Amino acid sequence: YLFPIATDRDVIGVIEILSTRRLGTGAQRMVSSVLRIYHNFQGLLDYSERDTLTGLLNRKTFDESFLKVLSDIPTRADANHEAEDRRHEAATPHYVLGVIDIDHFKSVNDRFGHLIGDEVLLLLSRLMRGSFRFHDMLYRFGGEEFVVLMRCDEEIHAGEAFERLRLNTERYAFPQVGRITVSIGFTEVRPGDGPADAFERADKAVYHAKGHGRNQVHNYAALVASGVIQESTQLSDVELF
Predict the structure, then answer these.
(1) Is 159 in contact with 186 (CB distance < 8 Å)?
(2) In the chain, how many domains are there?
(3) Which range among 42-46, 51-55, 152-156, 211-215 shows the weakest confidence by mean pLDDT?
(4) Which of the residues 84, 119, 144, 200 is marked catalytic?
(5) Count of CB atoms within 10 A of residue 169's CB?
(6) Domain range for residue 25?
(7) Which of 5, 29, 166, 217 places its Cα 20 to 30 Å from the Cα of 229?
(8) Which DSSP category does 90 fall into?
(9) 177 with 131, same domain?
(10) What is the rounded distance in angstroms from the CA atom of residue 158 to the CA atom of residue 186?
(11) Residue 193 forms beta bridges with which residues?
């Protein structure tokens, strides 16, 4: 017997029950009751952890997620030790934080109203789900600002994912509004980073995109390497929120 495990948004798994006899009505009701309790519990978690408009993770869950990611990143000493054994190199995790900002979103609200603005936010969140992998963590920080926290083999793979979102957004016909674009900046999460450190670097890359034509994706490290922007100072002792 297979029983779906579902939330309000989708089916996330199944429970398989093996029995040599036909499962009675009472037993089926008991399983359904347990699943209903889980469904209600998951609903409470979603309410506290997710943005009510878009269904993406909300801002207050970001710190906890970031600290979990940080614990998975080798320290510099660990990295030096691993460098001695190339067999472990491929297993070293890399995490990237990206900041996504909708271009001219204030003009959308001013011209079409907040209901249409909310529809743009909702549609962009769907484009994000279609552009990133299931296990990439997608957040709405409020207003027109979104954040992505992802694990990848190399920064270039993250850049490809962000470019995919940029293109998908540019090509999408938003009802009534028409063409919408996004500016995106991203950075690799470094050992010892606080949430504010990585966010500030990615936000600097977004600021550069905004100031140079918008509708662009920029890698913070590449901007620093080319001398376009200066390396940020550490902000670990400063709270992001």
Answers:
(1) yes
(2) 2
(3) 42-46
(4) 144
(5) 23
(6) 2-49
(7) 166
(8) G
(9) yes
(10) 8
(11) none
